[in-house]
Amino acid sequence: MTQGTRLVVDAVTMRFGGLTAVDGVSFTAEPGDITAVIGPNGAGKTTLFNCITGFYRASSGRIMLGETALHRLPGHRIALAGVARTFQNIRLFGGMTCLENLLVAQHRRLMAASWFGIGAVLGLSRYPAAEREAVERARAWLEATDLLDRADDAAGSLPYGAQRRLEIARAMCTGPRLLCLDEPAAGLNPRESAALSQLVRAIRDGTAAGADPCSVLLIEHDMGVVMGISDKIVVLDHGARIAMGTPAEIRADPNVIAAYLGEDEPA
Ligand SMILES: Nc1ncnc2c1ncn2[C@@H]1O[C@H](COP(=O)(O)OP(=O)(O)OP(=O)(O)O)[C@@H](O)[C@H]1O
Question: Where does the ABC transporter domain lie (predicted)?
Fold first, then answer.
């Protein structure tokens, strides 16, 4: 069993014209850890996330996932390298069922098993076995996210909190080495936030859906969730890293408290 994969973010800078949205940020997200990136509005969190997940190419710096240089890969190769993400705004196929959403997420695996259609034409395909596995994996993640009874319902008909869990299930169906969550607790009620925290811990520890442990990186404004589940917190302000440490260290850091003055104070 793997123990997740180390993410190294090394002096990453992202400029938009004259604006430096991320300014030489470095940190490592250790295997087996939940690492949170926090900071006031406009601090550069989403931009940094977009660099890691391949939506932007960093202006400079290195991003390594294990031995893989993510910063050198085109955006569409990042998922293949083992990075899965969820979005601030939910992006599910609303008209498809929950199960179908999780099967679509596995289409690359299924295509590979059918040798991209050629094996199927020749009757040599491993597709049926792969399809069975894909359905089993999808059902395991539906169960882990408490959505098994909604498997055949349209994703768009689910309550908001359930859609957020389905997004995580979909990301996990790709078998990632690193899961990036962009404000997963946004809009959740306290009970749903608690269930989310438990799910993210289980993903980190490899106790959900029979999957291996997975490193987790999250952006989150809900300080209850951040302080409750993070092993390490990286704090950004005006694009730069101003603090890094355990939740207890971050809570007591005067730089962090100063950065948040006028915002919601952490903890
Ligand atoms: N595509 C873009 N083009 C130009 N400027 C951008 C772009 N994306 C982000 N920015 C700017 O970069 C800075 C950092 O924004 P970013 O969205 O990364 O912050 P954030 O910490 O995620 O904020 P929030 O908590 O409000 O989501 C902001 O000044 C923003 O206006």
Answer: 7-263
Task: Give residues with Cβ within 8 angstroms of 249, minimum separation 6.
Answer: 243
CA nearest neighbour of 109 among 176, 165, 55, 155: 176
The pLDDT of 253-260, averaged and rounded, is 86
Q: Whose CA is nearest to atom 17 of ligand 1?
A: 46
For residue 107, give Cα distances in angstroms to 149, 169, 201. 23, 15, 27
Taking residue 72's Cβ as centre, other Cβ atoms within 10 Å add up to 11
Stretch 211-240: mean pLDDT: 93
Delineate the domains of the chain, giving CATH numbers in brackets: 1-82+176-266 (3.40.50.300), 94-174 (no CATH)
The answer to whether residues 167 and 85 touch, using CB atoms and an 8 Å cutoff, is no
**Nearest ligand 1 atom to alpha carbon 46:** 22
